[in-house]
Amino acid sequence: MAEKEFSFENVYDVVKSYENGFIGAVCDPVATEKLQADIAAAGGLPKGAMACSAYGLEDSGKGKLSLPFLEILKLYPDSLPGGAQGRGDCVSWSTRNAGLTTMCCDITSGTPDEASGKLEGAPDVSDTARLAGVLSTEAIYNWRRHGGDGWSCAEAARVVLKDSGLWLRKKYEDIDVDFTTYSSRNAGIYGSQTPPDSWRKIGADHLIRTATVLDTYEQLRDMLANGYGVSSCGGEGFSSVRDLNGVSNRSGSWAHALAYIAVDDRPEIINLYGVPLILVQNSWGNWNDGGRRIFGTSVDIPVGSFWARWSDLKNRDMIALSGVNGWPPKKLKSYGARGNI
After folding, report:
1. Tell me, what's the pLDDT at 3?
2. Interval 137-183: pLDDT, tens
3. Per-residue three-class SS string for 79-96
4. Quick check: 295 and 276 in contact, CB under 8 A?
5. How far apart are CA 256 and CA 215, in angstroms?
6. What is the torsional sign of CA 297, 299, 300, 301?
7. Of 108, 100, 106, which Cα lies nearest the Cα of 325?
8. How many other CB atoms are there within 10 angstroms of residue 285's CB atom?
9. What's this model's pTM, rounded to 2 decimal places?
10. For residue 159, what is the enclosing H or E element?
11. Is residue 62 a contact partner of residue 336, using CB atoms and an 8 Å limit?
12. Which CATH class, in words, describes the domain spanning 23-79+88-122+148-165+209-321?
């Protein structure tokens, strides 16, 4: 981890810092083991293979174009990318974006909470909060438990499972903090100090039900096909220029966290690129350019995102976040046939 806090003036400083070796994210095997132990202790399924098998998700995304990010935009138009990070808190952004994906897919799937039986609607947020990504990143990052910048995806997942959950972007009068818009300062209210019980009380009302660690493409594909967002830590960098179909090539190295919000497993895409594609939502705002139209459709990927070849992502840590209902299969629309959008 970095030994000090970093403050970036603009997105170009962010990109330059990561390209020059800033460590915003680490793959921490010990943290991953602790996360899996926490999941198992709570009665969950710590390994993706177990979750996919137990809930009948296996091969549910095979051959399909699965676009769970569209469920976010149905409920909260223009909410992605939700601004840009202003310090080394990329892990909280990837966790937020994965959690937002799962939350919105839960809502649009119309599945009641398995514990309460309630069918939750989309929370109301202000227009300002919607454009800032609906959910707070800072509420997560304040639980990193060290004074510098940088974190691991596994530790952040433990936080949203046990401590902080998903906080809406709004002002919290009880703790006198306004999370309506992103603030790098608000992301550092706490660090080496753990947030007080007043924060834990708020966060406890919005915890992620469970998570699971993924280690194969098939698990990732099938989780995304069922509307479960994924947070990922690793060292791969990518070009800021997308091709006509929104695909970016590997370029350099970033110690960085990224969210996965869609998957394209269609045969025509595999024929074109040699491998399936994963849609990556970055936390740098409008940092890249080039094509955004999804091949064979009339749909554009979100600002700041890009398709990456699975072969360029295969060595990264991946953690899928469930919603309030565990891992039930969801009836999300399939976009498998060309021209049906």
Report:
1. 38
2. 999 999 999 999 999 999 999 999 999 999 999 999 999 999 999 99
3. CCCCCECCCCCHHHHHHH
4. no
5. 18
6. negative
7. 106
8. 18
9. 0.94
10. helix 153-162
11. no
12. alpha beta
Segments making up each domain of the chain, as ranges: 23-79+88-122+148-165+209-321
Q: Omega before 46 cis (within 30°)?
A: no
Residue 314 Cα distances to 16, 232, 252, angstroms: 24, 11, 16
E strand or H helix at 320, and its extent? Answer: strand 317-321
Task: State whether residue 10 is helix, strand or coil.
Answer: coil
Coil vs helix vs strand at 210: coil
Beta strand pairing call for 65-66 and 250-264:
antiparallel
| DSSP H helical ranges for 20-84 | 29-41, 48-54, 69-75
Helix (H) / strand (E) element for 300: namely none
Q: Give the integer Cα–Cα distance in Å for 258 and 148.
A: 20
Q: Whole-angstrom Cα distance, residue 76 to residue 134?
A: 8
Environment class of 118 (CB within 10 Å of its CB; exposed 0-12, middle 13-18, buried 19+): exposed
What six digits make up the tokens of 160?
A: 């949203």
Among residues 243, 341, 248, the alpha carbon closest in space to that of 297 is found at 341
120 has pLDDT over 80: no
Three-state DSSP state, 287: coil
Distance CA 337, CA 36 (A): 37
Q: pLDDT (tens digit, 9 = 90+) per residue, 310-339?
A: 999 999 999 999 986 566 777 677 665 443
Tokens of 75: 């409920």
Query: Nearest Cα to 165, choosing from 203, 200, 211?
Result: 203
Q: How far apart are CA 93 and CA 139, in angstroms?
A: 11
Extract the tokens encoding 40: 């198992």
**Greatest pairwise CA separation for the chain in angstroms:** 55
